[in-house]
């Protein structure tokens, strides 16, 4: 007899809950939806479930994984592309499998293009002036994307989607990736840094990509280069970036992710002092745009994430012969 498939979903927001309830019925699984992020205190709520789903906002440390293992959890599906918030080594030692979800690359690709255009047209200053009823155009002359050379670092699904969109603007596109995964004008990392007017990052965070944009790399860039990061904050040495912006070595930055964003992004900090060494300085700069890790946040991605979470859990159960 096949076993009933139960999935415990932690950190489930109201909009996610509505989609989980709808799709769980269609897939024939039962879901237990928990609003709070997974923690050592609520790990026992997964008792009886081999599969759980977590958000990327929760840190899954070894002690927490141990509690989940004791509850009977064997498979953890994170509702994100990355898994830097999970102690993978500890999970492996405990015999637990970690899965990620794929979702529409268009969400992040669209957002990256939007950030490029906003920086090129000085949109932050335009909006701030207009809100103060200052409608002068002095120092607001922008540039056109077709006149730019755009360097795309990382040509996976999202990087390819960015390049596909850039074709329509008529700009020159350079690409860098250790694996040449797409039809593109691939160049060396150094050549991309030296030749690009705009550089956009689309690589995962790993040991070899940590601070891949540091002081040395920023100094290699053309004066006035615009940097876009919708991937992971720690790809960029933030201190070095602030120095390069203040010195005028680069022309601007648009950051949807930020090193040390944990505990700040996704929270209302309106009346709080920000515990971050560089965020306030970045936000004060007219040529810097900071958004709270929201590039992925679309309706299509929500449905993709929930449906692929359930599929991943079902596939894991099939591997055990339970479906």
Automatic annotation (TrEMBL):
Highest taxon, organism lineage: Bacteria
InterPro entries given in the database record: D-isomer_2_OHA_DH_cat_dom, D-isomer_DH_CS, D-isomer_DH_CS1, D-isomer_DH_NAD-bd, D-LDH-like, NAD(P)-bd_dom_sf, VanH
Keyword list, A-Z: NAD, Oxidoreductase
Start and end residues of each D-isomer specific 2-hydroxyacid dehydrogenase NAD-binding domain: 113-295
One Pfam family cited in the UniProt record for this chain: 2-Hacid_dh
GO molecular function: D-lactate dehydrogenase (NAD+) activity; NAD binding
Keyword Zinc-finger: no
Gene3D superfamilies registered for this protein in UniProt: NAD(P)-binding Rossmann-like Domain
Residue span, D-isomer specific 2-hydroxyacid dehydrogenase catalytic domain: 14-317
Homology family: Belongs to the D-isomer specific 2-hydroxyacid dehydrogenase family.
Designated name of the protein: VanHD lactate dehydrogenase
The organism of origin for this protein: Enterococcus faecium (Streptococcus faecium)
């Amino acid at each position: 007899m096949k076993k009933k498939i139960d999935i415990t979903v932690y950190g489930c927001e109201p909009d996610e809950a509505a989609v989980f309830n709808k799709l769980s019925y269609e897939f024939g699984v039962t879901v237990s939806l928990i609003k709070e992020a997974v923690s050592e205190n609520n790990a026992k709520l997964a008792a009886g479930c081999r599969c759980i789903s977590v958000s990327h906002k929760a840190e899954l440390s070894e002690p927490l994984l141990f509690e989940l293992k004791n509850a009977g959890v064997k498979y953890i599906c994170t509702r994100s592309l990355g898994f830097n918030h999970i102690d993978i080594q500890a999970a492996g030692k405990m015999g637990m499998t970690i899965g990620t979800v794929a979702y529409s690359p268009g969400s992040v690709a669209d957002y990256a293009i939007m950030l490029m255009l906003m920086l090129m047209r000085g949109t932050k200053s335009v909006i701030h002036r207009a809100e103060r009823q200052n409608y002068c155009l002095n120092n607001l002359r922008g540039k056109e994307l077709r006149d730019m050379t755009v360097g795309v670092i990382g040509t996976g699904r999202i990087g390819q989607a960015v390049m596909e969109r850039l074709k329509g603007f008529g700009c020159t596109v350079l690409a860098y990736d250790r694996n040449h995964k797409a039809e593109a004008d691939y160049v060396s990392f150094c050549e991309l840094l030296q030749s690009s007017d705009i550089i956009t990052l689309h690589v995962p965070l790993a040991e070899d990509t940590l601070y891949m944009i540091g002081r040395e790399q920023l100094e290699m860039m053309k004066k006035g280069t615009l940097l876009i990061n919708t991937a992971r904050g720690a790809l960029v040495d933030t201190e070095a970036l602030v120095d390069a912006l203040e010195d005028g070595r680069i022309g601007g930055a648009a950051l949807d992710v930020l090193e040390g964003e944990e505990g700040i992004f996704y929270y209302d900090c309106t009346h709080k002092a920000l515990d971050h060494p560089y965020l306030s300085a970045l936000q004060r700069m007219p040529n810097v745009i900071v958004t709270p890790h929201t590039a992925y946040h679309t309706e299509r991605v929500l449905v993709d994430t929930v449906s692929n979470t359930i599929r991943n859990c079902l596939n894991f159960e099939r591997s055990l012969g339970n479906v």
